[in-house]
Amino acid sequence: MKKLLPIFAIALFSIASIAQTARVQVIHNSADAAAAEVDVYINTDLALDDFAFRTATPFLDLPAGVEINIGIAPGNSTDVGDVLLTVPVTLTADEKYIVVADGIVSPTGYNPAPPLTLQVYPMAREMASNPANVDILVHHGSTDAPTVDVVETGVGAGTIVDDISYTEFQGYLELPTADYVVEIRDASGTVGVAAYQAPLATLGLDGAALTVLASGFLDPSQNSNGPQFGLFVASPLGGDLLELPSAPLGVNEFSDASFSIYPNPVNDRLYISANNIDLSQYSVAITDMLGRILTNDVLNIDNTVKVDNLSEGIYNLTILDGNRIVISKKFVKN
């Protein structure tokens, strides 16, 4: 069973006796099967028992101004002597930190196999600096993924993360609360790896501060058939990480000026217009704001799509060339 211990700091230290404290969130992102559950020690004391992969603690108060040892041990450990990794840290009073466990502990079965490490990010946030925004800290924690860019294609924000490599953090992105589509591309920014929906507005995340982690393996066959690559979100409240839903992968080729859909809002039938472009060679998909594909078919001869069977709400209409996105537009179904 996954267990997060909210009495983490209380069980280890009497808060009343600590003159200085810092706020710390710990995230388990080691995709090695041997580390599916780990025990976390602070100095010699067990702090987290059976801490599961893709879970996070809430922000917790730990002593500041003195060196403490954070130790990672197998989930069946009996005492601090079983730790696989010990990292000494001295926290700054009243500072906030995010600590992510990445890497591999098994001697074989993984390629590449960087060792288990703890990545520490200071100046963490528990809420957005502007209540109209969502502040997002991005962390590259996928051991077999190359240096990548993150490109927003849903609202046309473009490259939002440039050349992030394994173990690195990108400082907080302060994004207006909206629904986004993000593509993971190679360092050149031209070759797509994967694409995801990030429905920040639909989920009502105004004012939130989140950590988004690249997690799992691009090629599970080279990594003991471990968990597939994805983007996962950690809340300051802790608990299971939330997986971002996938989106069709591609690079926009139509310009917004040449492509339109109407009427919007729509009741029964949505018309698609693309100046000087033959749409008969393309297919069309409609997805909800969680990325679920509701329809996927060729266009009607009059370039229309029936939407009368959809419930009221916001959807994406996506033009596809095979499995590659050409362009995507939001519409409202009345």
Automatic annotation (TrEMBL):
Statement: the UniProt record of this protein carries the keyword Signal: yes
Keywords of the record: Signal
Statement: the UniProt record of this protein carries the keyword Amino-acid biosynthesis: no
Domain DUF4397: residue ranges: 22-105, 136-216
Signal peptide boundaries: 1-21
Origin superkingdom: Bacteria
Occurrences of domain Secretion system C-terminal sorting (ranges): 261-331
Protein name, entry field: DUF4397 domain-containing protein
Source organism of the structure: Aequorivita iocasae
